[in-house]
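Quick question about two entries, pasted in order.
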Amino acid sequence: MSYKETAVVTMLGASIAVAAALAGNRTGTGDGEGAASARYTLECTLLMATDNEPIPPTLFGRYPTKGSLTFVAAGEVSSGKLESTRLDGTKFALFGRAPGDWKRGKRFDNLSLYIDDGASPEQRRAMGMIFRADDTFRAEGFTSLSTVKIAIDRSPADALAPTAIKLGDDGERGEVTIHPMKGADGSSPVAVQNAFTFFDEREAVGLATASVRFVDHGRELKTPNGSGEIHSIRLSGTVHGAAADDSSR
């Protein structure tokens, strides 16, 4: 074999080896794109208002009594992270629509995510990645993440005190008030175990009535007497397709 032939064979062998190594890297991630994966955990109280009748309660995950469901929800992360990006204290809101035959495991028709403008860029990016990846919030249409001012006025010390939520400056995008239901003794809130839930929640769901005024680019929910729920939720899983930010906030 001539010198030139030997050089060609050597270069061809090296190219094959590099291609094989790259293929191995792509198949190792499980998403076919060679992108990194990142673990996340999220715990928060989620305050939810729907256009369903308050009696009987919606019990999120149950077939809606009115045949369809539109909801607005807001929460503040008590403990959470995506890899090393801390999410504690991050406020967020959701607007969604569920079809009439919606049930556990079925996708929402639409879901929009709002992140408080006080969150850092890393926190906004992490929250967007989590809600796009988590099976609980799967949707046929997921709009782009929006950044707005979110105010949640809640008194943890008084379980019966109403919670006021404002989205946007002075609530121009929406206002929601959650009124916890009182038990027979008049001093304890009503709470039930939700057998229909697909949240990872070990605490009973607080029942409430809700008044809602929400309007944002075709997304709308207005009801003076809707159904309200107070959930303590936990989300966990893996984000595929993008590397997590490694800065700690």
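Here is the second entry:
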Amino acid sequence: MVLEWAVFMLEPGKTTMKTNNKKISIIGYGPQAKLVIKFLKNIKDVDLHFILVKKNREIPNRKETSSIKNLLDSKIIYTCVPPKENYNIIKKLYKMKYKNYIISEKPVCDQLNQLKKILKFKKNFKEKIFVNFNFPFTKLAKLLNFHMSKKINGKIKLVYLNISHGAAFKMNKNHWRISSRLGPINGTAIHFIHFLKKKLGFYKVIYNEFSSNSHKNKKDTSDILLKFKNSLAYLHFSYSEPFDIFIKIIFDNSKIIYNGKLFKYYFKRNTFNKKGRFVEPKIVKKLNIDFYKDWNFSTYKNLKFIINLINKNKKNSINNINNDINILRSYYS
């Protein structure tokens, strides 16, 4: 429950508060929160204010409280908690009439009734919510977006994404990543579904299956087939398989292959050589992109981008925030 959280301040001398800087408070103290705290040191015009943690967390120099009221004077509140907690925190801030900005991890909600309620929140509250979808800020996403927009490639026929690793075997069986209703969809696949929806439009879930390999009855692997207007996307995400990253996009007249390290763009549908044999299109672009370095840096770039908008008193468009909240609606109904 949100009421069971406690607050602590950073150690004296660790942060120099500047009068005109915006105060940001963070809810949670897991790996994502620690990464955000690290990034904040390199972002101008913002200072870390409070960190909200559970009472039983042993963190030096904390200042405990049974309420999150201490955060209400923050210009920004960033929720770095498991997905099932996002909605309850945001709803609580709404009822407390918090008037400033919220950055939320995704998804904002994970049940249909929560989705319906949050969509009814007042406009002036919702338009100050930003959701952390950092994948579009990666070099990889920008390359994909560029080539997916080029008419010379023809229509997009098939998108195949595979991201797997064995992290589930290091996780406690109650870890949120494998205990949530949607398993890897909540933690990883959602980024790519969000990207594809913005690029290809609305989708229908044709096939969706979960499996358990690490712990009994825990959803550590997901297989998804999505039908867009003119194309299909197959997504396989696993926390319990050998490390592998593979992305393939087939167009009418070209293809893209990425293996987590090397991006290759093949152009033109030259299917026969002089001997009449099938041949691959020519590779016209090769780029080295380390997936995880690219991913981590995109988190920083996205956070900096959102904070810059907030510093300019910009608001999120209602269409944009509604789309971000609705991203997994097909899985809730």
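Reply: The chain has ten helices and 14 strands. Residues 291-311 form the longest helix (21 residues). Hope that helps.
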